[in-house]
Amino acid sequence: MASVLNVVTYAAPPLISLKPAYGPVKHVFLIGNCGYTHLPMLRLPIKDIEAIEEKMGELARVEISKLTDATRDEMAALLKNPLGAGDVFFAFAGHMAWCDGDPLLLGVDAVGDTEGVSLSQLLGWLAPTYGQKRRADIVLAGCLTQTSTGIPPEIKYPRKGGFVILFPSGFGQVALEPEHGEKSFFVQGLLPHLGKDLFYAAPTIAAAVTKQCGRQTPWVQSNTRSPEKEVSSLDDLRTELRKVHMSSACDTGPLRVQSKVFDELLNNERHAVKEAISKKQEAEALISHNFPNTPQLCITDPYADQPTRIRIDKISNQQVMEPSMLVISHTAGLDLSDVIYEFRQSGIIQHVVITRKGELLQFVRLLERAWHAGVAFWGPLGAAGDIREHKKVHDVNSHSIGISLEGDG
């Protein structure tokens, strides 16, 4: 049974570390809930928060306030206190739930899954007031016993302020805990990167956590933007895409691809589509995963003599598993506005579209499944000719990244 620690109220927050340095103080708020009264008790949230507290205390100009085993009212009272200048780091570990599409951070006195502090409330509290600038990093190490579905689109970021929200697991996954140990898989991967830009550290954190537990991939959601950067080579393009492949936003930010890079991609699409699809080296440079040996790719004609053997549901948010290929195509002469309209109507699109001007538009997160390869698959068929009857059959959409170039080929 987890030990219950005393509650430290926000009215008199303990000043853990305030080291001499220049610049505004960074405010750190930590909540760890283990001793739930009506829900299953948890073993690691307080230990996770204490580990984060220790790491953040090593930074300069940091003021830390911590709540442990906090009730809903105590958490709500925290969100009523005005914030001064300076960036904010907020971390919660404990049970979470969903209420009307809004994630809830549950207090230890929660009876059901409708009693807690909502993410919308938290975002509103962290939003800067008039004349302020603030970056807020939010770490939600919750959902320890339930499936995480991410932030729904109706949850809007405040108009002011930059927000980065880091989750312990991706879509359709459950955040796992080790059977033994003092910290969760998620916090073990997070700790080395505290004090850094979590948005760009997210791919490294995800790779570390996935390597540890094998079935959990953290992801990040953000409305921040980096300074405009010009991409002058394919290697630079891969690097920039790798930085943002965890983002759930619909564009990568102010990246611009030089015309020579666009021409090189377009040339690949025109003359070597199959070769470009199966280039394991390009995919390895793009995604931070361990790659299996790339199989010989075979594009299957859906109008062949056995069209019924192709049975793949059109699901745009299925998790991509071990991507090992790039699928390069073009927009068939459609204007970009038409491409966006078709995506909104059907959900069928590549992961990334590169415009003639070199702008990158991300339609689907690179760790999710798009519908860019149609009905292509590889692997032997089952005895009855149905690809579902053989475990070695894989559809290309679930194992590749799709890049579309604005043009007609």
Automatic annotation (TrEMBL):
| InterPro entries in the record | Amidase/PGRP_sf, Amidase_domain, Caspase-like_dom_sf
| Single GO molecular function | N-acetylmuramoyl-L-alanine amidase activity
Q: Which Gene3D superfamilies match?
A: 3.40.50.1460, Peptidoglycan recognition protein-like
* Superkingdom: Eukaryota
One GO BP on record is: peptidoglycan catabolic process
Please list every transmembrane segment annotated in the UniProt record, as residue ranges: none
Q: SUPFAM superfamilies attached here? A: Caspase-like, N-acetylmuramoyl-L-alanine amidase-like
List the protein's name. Answer: N-acetylmuramoyl-L-alanine amidase domain-containing protein
Organism of derivation: Symbiodinium natans
